[in-house]
Write a structure and sequence with these properties.
Blueprint: H1 5-19, E1 30-34, E2 40-45, H2 54-59, E3 71-76, H3 88-95, E4 99-104, H4 114-120, E5 124-126, H5 131-137, H6 139-147, E6 151-159, H7 177-189, E7 192-196, H8 197-203, E8 222-226, E9 245-247, H9 259-272, E10 276-279, H10 283-291, E11 297-303, E12 328-336, E13 339-346
Parallel strand pairs: 3-4, 4-5, 6-10, 6-11, 7-8, 7-10, 8-9
Antiparallel strand pairs: 1-2, 1-3, 11-13, 12-13
Helix pairs in contact: 3-4
Length: about 375
């Protein structure tokens, strides 16, 4: 059956509802219930682990029997899984819904299969509606499901000629206040912020997320320091409100970093045990993540200054010729005061970390808190 304009409009509404829900180990999901004539009867979203899923939240706002013959529009395929809550596919079937329109297929083995179950019960089911919008909303959660590791954003600030610092090592401030405020907003949206021990020793960063007036955001990312050298007792990061996680076994160095570095970083990411990682620990760490194929998103702030010298924003990536260049898909370019913000996604030739190295329970574990 063809998806109607009313159903597409309802999907846009469901995506907006989903975006207003909490971000965590469970996906943000929104749902809208339409009458047979296309009016909105109810809407809902997932409010967090252990709470009713979006479909059930919407159905709970209807009188008994009111959903009979209705259409449910949901951003993610209704689940076919019993955890702390029952299967949403069954809830829709039992409510008498006649048709379900959803955005993304559920990629998790334990929860997927809802569409097949509903079709078997006689419901009309259409999937893939506004799927690109759904993927953009759930990009970090989908990374966890697909690769069994956190979604990684690698950030750096640079001069127009690609330097991260002046020749004497000073780097505060390359960019202006608008760019710095944007960095802190992005930190506050992450679960963990990663820096290398070299940056901690050289710059003594606090690794907190702060508002422009210097106050701490309510949510603070967990600070993670990679590298074997000790963190000084008086380092600013040791006063972080969440403490500091020091992963001293991380392998970031070597003249020709390769599989050993990639494997080490992948292990460190999984050990952190979060969903969204924000990497801003200096050129060594940034280069290591990018070269290892572990950067899902690059956030680069470019300031209209020239510094010269050898303090490059990014180090060796293993690119020997232009044919081997790592291409990027640019998602957005934005002006922040005098600076430019470029957000891009690396176009890796092959994603080796999505294959058999993923733990068998890496995906299913993400649904445990349903």
């Amino acid at each position: 059956m063809t998806v109607s304009d009313l159903e597409r409009d309802a999907m846009r509404r469901a995506l907006a509802l989903a975006a207003g829900g909490p971000r965590g180990v469970n996906p943000q999901v929104g749902a809208v219930i339409l009458s047979p004539t296309g009016e909105i009867l109810a809407q809902g979203r997932h409010h967090g682990a252990g709470t009713p899923h979006a479909e059930v939240d919407a159905l709970s706002k209807l009188a008994p029997g009111q959903a009979r013959g209705a259409t449910a529009v949901v951003t993610l395929e209704p689940c076919n899984h019993t955890g702390r809550t029952g299967p949403c596919a069954v809830a829709l079937i039992d409510a008498g819904v006649a048709r379900v329109v959803y955005g993304l297929d559920d990629p998790t083995p334990r929860a997927g299969g809802g569409a097949e179950r509903m079709r078997a019960a006689g419901l009309e089911v259409d999937g893939g509606v506004l799927a690109d919008d759904g993927r953009a909303l759930l990009h970090d959660w989908l990374t966890v499901q697909r690769l069994g590791r956190p979604h990684v954003t690698v950030k750096w600030a640079q001069s127009l000629d690609g330097r991260a610092a002046a020749s004497d090592g000073t780097s505060q401030w390359i960019t202006g206040p608008a760019a710095r405020a944007d960095v802190h907003r992005r930190r506050a949206a992450a679960d963990a912020i990663v820096a290398g021990i070299g940056t901690v020793l050289a710059d003594d960063p606090a690794l907190t997320a702060r508002t422009p007036d210097g106050a701490l955001y309510e949510h603070q990312p967990l600070p993670v320091v990679l590298g074997a050298r000790a963190i000084p007792d008086d380092a600013a990061v040791r006063r972080h409100p969440r403490g500091v996680l020091h992963r001293s076994g991380a392998n970031l160095f070597g003249e020709h970093p390769g599989d050993a570095v990639a494997g080490s970083l992948l292990a460190e990411l999984r050990a952190i045990g979060v969903q969204r990682v924000f990497v801003e620990g200096g050129p060594t760490v940034a280069s290591a993540f990018v070269r290892a194929g572990l950067a899902d998103e690059i956030v680069a702030y470019v300031a209209p200054v020239l510094l010269g010298g050898d303090r490059l924003a990014l180090g060796e990536l293993g690119v020997a010729s232009i044919d081997g260049a790592l291409r990027l898909d640019v998602a957005s370019i934005e002006r922040l005061g005098d600076d430019l913000l470029v957000v891009a996604h690396p176009r890796y030739p092959a994603d080796d970390n999505s294959a058999d190295d993923k733990p068998a329970d890496a995906v299913s574990a993400q649904k445990e808190n349903d």
